[in-house]
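pasting for the record
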Amino acid sequence: MHSPCIDLTVSQWALLELSRNPDVQTKLRKELLEHGADPMYDELTNSLPYLDAVVHEILRVHPPIAEFTRIAAEDDVIPLSEPVRTKSGKLVDSLTIAKGTLIAISMESMNRSAALWGEDAKIFRPSRWLEDAHGRNGIPAKAREIQGHRHLLTFVDGPRMCLGKNFAVTEFKVVLTVLIKNFIFELRDGIDSKIEIGRGVLPRPNIVGEVGSKLPMRVQPYVA
């Protein structure tokens, strides 16, 4: 799951969302500057809640890999959380899976599911990860049932969960810390620029009308 290609893709989505949401970018920069010196590992993990919220909201809305597949090692019956109606019109509450069946699971659909994450599931909103005065965050109960890393399927789940997830998250935080503390990012044509997904090995943001996967930005040094 961790590779330079994936790192670049996630960083592109992060800079896009921070450029489209300047208030989030400003709030993140404020937290990082108030912290002072470059954070150590423990501080990146425990002392910068808004950075943590921004990173996990990016990983939720824009997982670098859209889906993963598994092959059933034996016959099984998978119970469903809610009944679904098949094409034939039959209502079923479980799926019968035969040994050798290839199963595709959409990280993107699960991470953005309104049934799990609420009506604003497709909206970039880092504040959902922050705790209130009572120690409760905005993660819905349904989403908390997902056992993947921080209730996401971005790093898959189960015995084949990405072994490098903690390293990947920490590296992502380091990159954002350096960039946001030192630079201000804006989309070249403003926050209302039309974005499409450039299809390739990995989905990348692309300004409509640009050839290839390009995300032109205006970057200026941050001066306190």
